[in-house]
Amino acid sequence: MAETGRAAGRNLVVFVRAPLSGTVKRRLAAGIGAPAARRFYLDTTRAVIGRLANDARWTTWLAVTPDRFARRGRFWPSGARRFAQGRGDLGERMTRALMRFGGAPTVIVGSDIPDLSARHVAAAFAALGRAETVFGPAGDGGYWLVGCRVPSLMRRLFGCVRWSGPHALADTLANVEGRRVALLDVLDDVDDAADLARLKRVAVRGRVRPSPAAIAR
Prior knowledge:
The protein is of the alpha/beta class. The protein has one domain: Spore Coat Polysaccharide Biosynthesis Protein SpsA, Chain A, CATH 3.90.550.10. Helix content is 33%, strand content 17%. The chain has seven helices and seven strands; from the N terminus they run βααββαβαββααβα. The chain has helices at 26-32, 34-52, 90-99, 118-127, 151-156, 168-174, 193-205, and strands at 11-17, 59-65, 81-84, 106-110, 133-137, 143-148, 181-183. The longest helix has 19 residues, at 34-52. It is globular, with a radius of gyration of 16 Å.
């Protein structure tokens, strides 16, 4: 169900990539193979969407790439609202997603964060009640969540950010220096085989509970 309209109130945007073999989790695929990496991504993404999409405290949208899959929803719940990410680098695509809702409080999250739950999203929207932007830091120097409620900041939030490296969060924070910023818990995605091994160890200790398929390989 691809949609182009605006939603009132709080909006949660989950960035997703169509789980085509060889195009998702490439660093992970180098360690465990493309089919297993695809299964991990698809299973984790479905679990994350399932935990977030039905919460009445916000409206959930899927921002999809490649764009053609915004209208072909076989990978995700059939009732999920979807729109295409469009062209450009990650910053350009996230800027459009934030601006899509006319300045309403909007939060963007990644789709492959095994620990991500509705509690984290609720904390982000609560933080936007007192701050202008909110970030969920990742251990590698990036971030798993970004939110904003000020249109003028949305337009310049991601300028000159060095993506996919240890400077992404620091570069983005530099763009909002002097403004009210909130930081959430540190969470991590699974980029490579070492990260997956860590996830398995943590799951055994019972701190997180990803689906069996997600940690099978």
